[in-house]
Amino acid sequence: MLRIPFILLLLTGSSLVASSYQIVDDSPQLQFGLTQLQAAIDDKSVDVSVEFAEDAELGEQAFQIKSDGGTIKVQGGDALGLMYATQELAERIRMGDDPGELAVDAAPFIKRRGLKMNIPLDARCPSYDDSGTAARMNVEQVWSTDFWHGFLDRMAEHRYNTLTLWSNHPFTAMLQLDDYPEVALEDVAVPTYELDDWILPQYKQAELQDPKNYRIVKKMTMAEKVEFWRHVMRYAKERGIDIYFITWNIWVHGAEGKYGINTSQTNPKTIAYMRESVKQFVLTYPDLKGIGITCGEHMQNKLEGEHSVEKWMWATYGLGIQDAKAEQPGRKVDFIHRVWYSGMDVMMDDFISKYPDTINLGFKYARARLYSIPNPPFFKEQLQADCEQYDIGCWMNLRNDDIFCFRWGDPDYVRAYMQNLPPEPILAGYHMGSDGYVWGREFTSLDPESPRQLEIDKHWYKFMLWGRLGYDPGLDRTFFERQMELRFENVDAVQLYATWQTASKIVPLINVWHWRDWDHMWSPEACTSKKEGYHSVDHFIEYWPLAGQGMQSIRDYVKQPTADATSPLDVADQLDQLADETLRGVERIATQSSDKAFRQTCADLQAFAYLGAYYADKIRGSTAVHQFRVSGNEQVREDAILYLEHALVHWKEYAEVASSQYATQLLARTSYLDWNGSLLESAKRDIEIAREAKHQEFPESVDHSRAKLFGH
Q1: What stretches of 158-308 adopt beta strand conformation (E)?
Q2: E strands present in 467-600
Q3: What is the pLDDT of residue 24?
Q4: 10 Å Cβ neighbour count for 545?
Q5: Shortest CA distance to 658 belongs to which of 532, 501, 524?
Q6: Is the domain covering 497-709 a CATH 1.20.120 domain?
């Protein structure tokens, strides 16, 4: 496509007037940027003359802004760079900068910066775990153009350029297959069966298709569905955003039992159906950037021969994409092969070495604990050597299954995170998101907007950090303070920045000390897990910190305190300090504005503080319980009871603030987030554990012999 050699525009505070220009071909990315630029100019009532041009020598996504004789020269290395440059100019004008004094030279630190969404397409074809309230409440949203326009616009503003949409089997909701007409799921359905925090919906294949278990909320023909998703992908492309669909296997929601199709790995009819689905998915959606796969929990990874995991993947996804490329020889389909339930050698031999286009790996970089430390060790320990040996890049899946409710924001943490990611080309890119939550529209606010806010707007600061600092980790504190000034007039942005950052250190600290790798193992906002329930005193005694962080577990500390290690009591003191600083900071700024979003933000920061205070006294109480069981010292038992009574007070403070803003919800991976219900009763039970503790009687869960069982 021909690009713009130059456009010279005179922009005024009332209109956009072309002064002298030559347009060979306009780009939708530039048009999006110009819309934002004009809005900023109108808002600030300034007049500027701007010259736009592309210069490929700047590089992919790079841009320059400089003033020359009264004209602002905006150059981009490509259409996306030009869009970013125009957005940058608009932002600087909003901040009050003099456009004539600007000198900006920018290039992406990380070229592929993305978000991840487990997309709840339909009750009949769920994503990996649609058991939570978030999935149920967002089915209709993912079939709304208003939702996608707002979401994708915001992504572009925060400099994300990749969106990965994750679904077990999206094909039945998005395709009309000539050879399999009966598998198409017309309309949009939401589940009506009772929410269940034990069984993943995808394992109820027959029940999912029973009309008594779903309700149609939107009538759509398959032709309308196809046109809808073509529009979404085209709109994303016009914002410089690539869309990938990533699947788990083997699932055939909507096709089960039809045409001989099932989830058997050895069934040739399933293989043929999957191959045709992949082919038609590529052909149907010309703006689809790529596909990703998971050799998931629903495959037989011990099968050998022609039905082995990787050969099945090649026979379905690999050959399906090749079939599509045979009909569209110029088509490129990027591929992400997740490292899960497979091995590197067999992946290379049976799939990766055969793939005709760009292919990269996918890895859970922080497991499920994005908010823990900014340099998780797992990729370096498990996969980096393979990537170097085979000269293959890897997408880092930045899984946030830690914080869903409260507004988080620590620029220093995100900046360090970006700088600690492996370098390109080993790093193919990153996508940040959750398995246990759908970041669509918020659905729990007790004082909602109408329509309800996009989560990307409610959590604007967090999403800004993970996008903008991926593009430019050099953005400093002053930049983010100025962003806060734009959002919240008359608020002390310096104090707000500091308070927000302090509050945001609480969950990472407790996550690192009470380390639980995966999403179903732990929700710090609820102190609970899927299988074990509430994490009691005994859980805190049993579990250990993330290895390599210089922290002691309760058992190790009671057995032998170490001077050069951070003890449980040190962690408790750190949590208390963070909580106290946060509460003091909120007190200083809370009355500076009556803006609703600011008020809600302050309440979220208070919630973080009370949660930190709760965990501080819970750690002290748990430590004292174990000390009593070892020593029999009754004074230590009394100390434990007192600490846990204090913890209960803090839980009630936490619950009061949280429940004043948010309704109860079911978290898909860890059960109900009900601060004033079962969780409160469980917090009370901790005190009884201390009262009932006996000298030299250790529950099974804290028996030192179990340490080996759990890999301590």
Answers
A1: 162-166, 188-191, 214-218, 242-248, 288-294
A2: 528-529, 533-534
A3: 35
A4: 20
A5: 524
A6: yes
Phi-psi category of residue 462: left, alpha or beta, with phi > 0 → left and psi -120 to 50 → alpha: alpha
Give the helix ranges, DSSP H, for 504-567: 506-513, 537-542, 554-559
Helix or strand (DSSP H, E) at 276: helix 268-284
pLDDT at position 9 is 62
CB 471 within 8 A of CB 168: no
* Class of 113-475 in CATH: alpha beta
pLDDT above 70 covers what percent of the chain? 94
Could you give the strand order of the β-sheet that contains 71-76, starting from the edge strand earlier in sequence? 16-22, 6-11, 48-54, 71-76, 63-68, 103-106
Sequence-distant (6+) residues with CB within 8 A of 435 are 118, 128, 129, 368, 399, 401, 519, 668, 669
Q: What residues does each domain of the chain span?
A: 6-106, 113-475, 497-709
Q: What local confidence, expressed as pLDDT, does residue 20 receive?
A: 35
Cα angle: 113, vertex 119, 121; to 5 degrees: 145
Distance of alpha carbon 339 from alpha carbon 389, whole angstroms? 15
Q: Are strands 63-68 and 103-106 parallel, antiparallel or unpaired?
A: antiparallel
Could you tell me if 545 and 513 are in contact, meaning their C-beta atoms sit under 8 angstroms apart?
yes
- Range 6-106 has CATH code 3.30.379.10: yes
Is the peptide bond between 250 and the residue preceding it cis, with omega within 30 degrees of 0? yes
User: Would 6-106 and 113-475 be classified into the same CATH topology?
Assistant: no
CB–CB of 323/333 below 8 Å? Answer: no
pLDDT band at residue 7, thresholds of 50, 70 and 90?
Answer: low
Tokens encoding 512: 């690192």
Residue indicated by tokens 């058991």: 131
Instruction: For residue 26, count other CB atoms closer than 10 A to its CB.
Output: 13
Q: Give the E-state strand segments of 479-616 in sequence order.
A: 528-529, 533-534
For every residue of 60-125, DSSP letters joined together read TT-EEEEEETTEEEEEESSHHHHHHHHHHHHHHHHHT--GGG-EEEE--SSS-EEEEEE---BTTB
Element (H, E) at 385: helix 384-390
Contact 226, 174 (CB under 8 A): yes
Cα separation, 172 vs 257, in Å, equals 13
pTM for this predicted structure: 0.95
d(CA 455, CA 91): 22
User: 404 near 397, Cβ under 8 Å?
Assistant: no
